Amino acid sequence: MKKVLIATTNKGKFRELSQLLSDVPVQLVSLSDVGITDEPEENGKDYTENSQIKASFYSKESGLPAIADDGGLEITALDGAPGLKSHRWLGPDTTEKDIFAHMGKIAKKLPDDNRQAFFKVVLSLAHPDGSVMSFPGEIEGIITKEPSDMYEHGYPYRSFFYLPQLKKYYFEETLTPKEVKKYHHRYKAVQELKKLLRLDLK
Fold this sequence. Notes:
The chain is 32% helix and 23% strand. By secondary structure, the chain is α+β, with helices and mostly antiparallel strands. The protein has a single domain (3-201), classed as Maf protein, CATH 3.90.950.10. The protein is globular, with a radius of gyration of 17 Å.
């Protein structure tokens, strides 16, 4: 079975992508599976460039097709912040705990009439020959004043991201299969990526 590398150190993201790709007949492996600890410098100007930098780097390092993504939370009232800085909003050593605490303060200060926010992502699939393709996805929601009682490791922002149309916080485990297909921002990008993976298998 063909191996495909999911190039992320985020265990929650690896689990989520593995589930979304579970119907493709490939063997999904992690960075630890292939013994890669190096990281590329993410100096792209947008999500697409960063996801391509990561996918290309890890594909060349591993000799395998590699999937990487980049994305973030964009809060309209903050002019799209944290955006590209979502993972390191408070500096290079930002932790999930730091982000959660900071979001708790931000959430209380947002104006009641403008709590709109978006989760955006770009998934890239790179091959060792240097070719790379990218696929975007996004979902709109609102930032609540108080966080959910739930917490999903690897995704501190989701405790504050609410989908009014579903009356649910944006946790994968609370979405039905039908809701995942309609509202999950990675699902939309993964569907296009799957087409490319299946072409590789022919």
